[in-house]
Write a structure and sequence with these properties.
This protein is an alpha/beta fold. It contains ten helices and eleven strands. The protein is globular.
Length: 315
């Protein structure tokens, strides 16, 4: 009898069934999306569950007696109650390193868009204003360079190191803070969070969401940001207090770019939709991980995780 596997969020990997090759090894049922109230029902007979952002808390896990493997089509696994999974003998597998290059690209896409005031210049041309100009150029907004700027990194893991290396290539001075509180890399100067925020021209977040990082950036320390600083979050939404950022953007002069939100999709009354702060806000819908062949790498890693589990059953 073949093992049953359920994919709860097929659409998160694109519009086609990227995990179809698994059908050679398991009986796979794939759902485009799965609301919370249907998770247990859809997984009740599955030995393998594949997901991305659907939460599996302790109460859900205890209702899934056949479940033995959870494959997360991502790096972060904070959506699962690890303690309960260990108690029940459920293995959790993720895919590490698949998006390092991709997230690095997106980090710089956000930074360069803000440094160059690109949305303003794009609108200037498309609105027809440029057509009526008396001169060939138009410098109405600053164009800022990275050379000799201070770039602070929050979370110096694989992605943080990749961003640091690229930032050096553009002439920036790199420092970092360890979200665990312990310096672990002598390549770059380590600073406490408060010092990093107060001295950096660009700050990018590449940390996981956990007890140490939830609400790490908040109303108290946002006040430390330098005039004109750029804060980028490509880690997890809960690391930054979004209400505090929206309020601070009205009181301080800095820029915020993010690809992640505490609630995804954004809620309809989100403070970032306030028209008064749009000029210093850049938002993207959790796409940093999807450049180039990244999704192919993610799918290949997930398939290998399933095959690895099946190999253990043969012994």
């Amino acid at each position: 009898m073949r093992i049953k596997a359920v994919m709860l969020e097929g659409d998160s990997l694109g519009r086609t069934n990227k995990l179809a090759p698994l059908e050679e090894f398991v009986d796979l049922i794939s759902y485009a999306n799965t609301p919370k109230e249907l998770v247990v029902e859809r997984c009740k007979d599955a030995e393998i569950v594949i997901l991305n952002k659907v939460n599996l808390d302790a109460s859900m896990l205890r209702q899934l007696p056949k479940l033995r493997l959870i494959c997360v089509t991502a790096t972060g696994t904070n959506i699962i109650d690890h303690a309960c999974a260990r108690e029940l003998g459920i293995i959790i597998k993720n895919v590490e390193g698949y998006s390092t290059h991709s997230v690095t690209i997106h980090t710089f896409a956000l930074v360069f868009t803000l440094l160059s005031n690109m949305p303003y210049y794009d609108r200037y041309c498309k609105s027809g204003e440029y057509c009526g100009s008396q001169i060939f150029t138009h410098f109405n907004k600053d164009l800022c360079a990275l050379e000799n700027k201070n770039w602070g990194i929050i979370g110096l893991g694989k992605i943080g190191k990749s961003v640091a290396k690229s930032a050096l290539g553009f002439g920036a001075h790199v420092s970092y803070t360890s979200t665990g509180g312990h310096p672990h890399d002598s390549t770059y100067p380590h600073k406490p969070l408060e010092a990093l925020l107060s001295t950096s021209d660009v700050i990018s977040i590449h940390a996981p969401l956990n007890d140490h990082t939830y609400n790490l950036i908040n109303a108290k320390n946002l006040s430390l940001l330098k005039e004109g600083a750029i804060l980028i979050n490509v880690g997890r939404g809960g690391i930054v207090n979004e209400e505090a950022v929206a309020h601070a953007l009205k009181e301080q002069h800095f820029y915020y770019g993010t690809d992640v939100f505490e609630q995804e999709p954004m809620r309809a009354d989100h403070p970032f939709l306030d028209p008064s702060i749009q000029s210093r806000l850049l938002l993207t819908p959790h796409i940093a991980w999807g450049y180039g062949d990244t999704i192919k790498k993610l799918v290949a890693g997930t398939i290998e995780n399933v095959k690895g589990y099946l190999e253990t059953l043969k012994g």
